[in-house]
Amino acid sequence: MRLHHSLLLSGASLAVGVALGAGLTRWKLQDEADPKIHYLPIVKAASEESLPSPSGITRFGLPGLSQLKTRQSHVLSYDSRLRGPAWVLEQLNVDRLQGSANRQGCDFKEDDSVHPYHRATNSDYRGSGFDRGHLAAAANHKWSQKAMDETFILSNVYPQNPNLNQNAWNNLEKSCRGLSKSNKNVYVCSGPLFLPKMEVDEKMYVKYQVIGANHVAVPTHFFKVVVLEKYNGEIELRPYVMPNCPVDDKIPLDRFLVPIESIERASGLLFVPNILKSSNNLKAITAGQK
């Protein structure tokens, strides 16, 4: 078989010859009349009118979208694959930390706004050895009983090592509340991290445990990005990362400060661009700084 291509445009037209056995089939664009030639149809460039409309593409709906949920006490973006939030954002100030709300009557409950396939339940945590760790802390929202109650919805919760939850992570939450006394506002964004680890084959893998029938993801680490809005207009950024394992609560919190870029890269989130849109007076506090 021999394949012969000749390309002639405009006055000469386009011809592609293909030898099949002893025969030869000739092709041309349909711009010249010749009964011995097989004509190719003229293909026009796709116009906007010929493209499928978005309404047609989405006739049966979209498979999924980021689930943004707004509570009285916090805002979160829910990740259905993990059965937990990608991030939880809350605002602290002196007024929000005061009030009569009591956590004694609060019960952890499922998030009914999440499809049952993608929802964590209390039974997932039973016997797992993990605490139901808040990302938006209950004690941050004493100003409203409803606000505090909403922090117990399981879409605000991840499996957390009991030692971490009740000690170092709790100390970090207390520190955020303390900072509200000397700042106009304290914005706290908390979330999970799933960091890679080198295995014996010297390759990097992301591995994490899941618990319960719904396979609730157990993060390898947690981040907490703290943004301080000062009374003089200055903005201070304090990014923390803690491993989801027993942590000595005597370790100073400054030891857990990391460059904000490391959290942005690992989480797929961006913090600094959003802050700079609101203020050019940004001071970043990282490890080894005060």
Description:
- It is found in: Mitochondrion.
- It holds the Pfam family Endonuclease_NS.
- Mg(2+) binds at residue 165.
- Its EC number is 3.1.30.-.
- A 7-stranded mixed beta sheet has the order 6-7-8-11-16-17-18, with helices on both faces. Strands 1-2-3 form a 3-stranded antiparallel beta sheet, with no helix packed on it. Strands 4-5 form a two-stranded parallel ribbon.
- It is α+β, with helices and mostly antiparallel strands.
- It has 6 helices and 18 strands.
- Residues 1-31 have low confidence and may be disordered.
- It folds into 2 domains: 2-43, no CATH class; 67-284, Extracellular Endonuclease, Chain A.
Keyword list:
290 residues; alpha+beta; Extracellular Endonuclease, Chain A; seven-stranded mixed sheet; three-stranded antiparallel sheet; DNA/RNA_endonuclease_AS
- The stretches of 5 or more residues where confidence is low (pLDDT under 50) are 1-31
Helix content: 10-25%
- Shape verdict: globular
CATH class of the largest domain, named: Alpha Beta
Tell me the strand order in the biggest sheet: 6-7-8-11-16-17-18
CATH topology of the largest domain: Extracellular Endonuclease, Chain A
What's the Cα radius of gyration? 29 Å
How many helix segments? 6
Described by strand count, sense and barrel closure, the largest sheet is: 7 strands, mixed
Average pLDDT over all residues:
85
Q: What is this entry, summarized?
A:
Residues 70-278 form the DNA/RNA non-specific endonuclease/pyrophosphatase/phosphodiesterase domain. The protein is an alpha+beta fold and 290 residues long.
